[in-house]
User: Which sequence fits this backbone?
């Protein structure tokens, strides 16, 4: 049986979701996405530049028919703005699978979980499939599940910080308590962070800055692709038991 | 010749002066907005793109045109 990532009844072969922000240009972005092997990319909703039409469009570089666009609500600090953004996103082309992120603090970019919970409830009722960026708080994660979230996406560390997973315990508690896919979103810095996330049992990771701001984004995209595969394989293989003392790998019997 | 009435509207936060009774469709066509790749709001209400030709712009209308850009 194929080991696929299932979100809201849609199946994906890749467990790596990548962001499309912070690249030097669209060509670099599209190439990095290709290297990453991602089948889902996050995108932001912004005003069209009415005056300068020479600016390239994301859709001309990443075909939404070939790759799943996951519209986000980046930059929204309340439920009203987040709902407005996602309703518009849906209007662009029928997108129902969305990433909700309602921020609460400009310095840490920590999510405002009260606004996030309210928004999740409303969006779900409107037929959206909501993948929710959230804190690594197991209680909040449970509440999100109860109001109909399609995926729980706890942060590893603040957005764009590159600090890696700070609270493995909470991530594991969240993973073990829910039937929903758990995707680590935000804060990963290097490929090994993705391995850790996957070995904790997470269903996927979402990476943007760690790839876009690497010296070589294409190699880093490839590194993340491989690390997500390696971490997943390691997790489903079931690791050996830990021991405080040494145990010889070669048999004792027959020593000369 | 009849005087053509002009009205002020706002598009993506910018002031624009257009002819009274211009339809939203003809205005967006004139601006070469790629309709299939955008979403449109008129006075904070989402506009069904099928109805663009029926909507006539009025004084002080606020239009928002959004699309997807790179983001995390």
Assistant:
């Amino acid at each position: 049986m194929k080991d696929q990532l299932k979100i809201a009844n849609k199946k994906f072969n890749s467990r790596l979701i990548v962001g499309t922000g912070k690249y030097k240009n669209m060509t670099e972005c599209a190439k990095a996405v290709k290297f990453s092997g991602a089948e889902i990319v996050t995108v932001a909703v912004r005003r069209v530049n009415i005056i300068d039409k020479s600016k390239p469009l994301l859709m001309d570089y990443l075909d939404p028919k070939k790759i799943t666009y996951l519209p986000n609500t980046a930059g929204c600090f309340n439920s009203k703005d987040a709902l407005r953004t996602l309703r518009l996103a849906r209007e662009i082309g029928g997108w129902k699978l969305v990433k909700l992120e309602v921020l609460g603090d400009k310095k840490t970019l920590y999510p405002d979980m009260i606004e996030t919970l309210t928004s999740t409830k409303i969006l779900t009722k409107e037929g959206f499939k909501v993948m929710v960026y959230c804190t690594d708080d197991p209680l909040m994660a449970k509440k999100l599940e109860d109001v109909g979230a399609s995926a729980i996406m706890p942060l590893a560390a603040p957005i764009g910080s590159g600090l890696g997973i700070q609270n493995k315990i909470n991530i594991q508690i969240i993973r073990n308590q829910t039937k929903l896919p758990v995707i680590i979103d935000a804060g990963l810095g290097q490929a090994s962070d993705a391995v850790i996330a996957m070995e904790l049992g997470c269903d996927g990771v979402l990476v943007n800055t760690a790839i876009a701001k690497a010296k070589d984004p294409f190699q880093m995209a490839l590194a993340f692709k491989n690390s997500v595969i390696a971490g997943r394989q390691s997790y489903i293989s079931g690791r050996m038991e830990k021991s405080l003392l040494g145990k010889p790998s070669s048999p004792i019997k027959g020593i000369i | 010749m009849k005087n053509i009435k002009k009205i002020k509207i706002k598009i993506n936060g910018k002031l624009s002066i257009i002819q009274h009774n211009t339809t939203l469709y003809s205005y967006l066509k004139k601006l070469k907005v790629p309709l299939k790749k955008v979403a449109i709001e008129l006075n904070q209400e989402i506009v069904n793109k099928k109805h663009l030709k029926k909507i006539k712009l009025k004084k002080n209308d606020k239009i928002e045109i959004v699309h997807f850009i790179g983001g995390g």
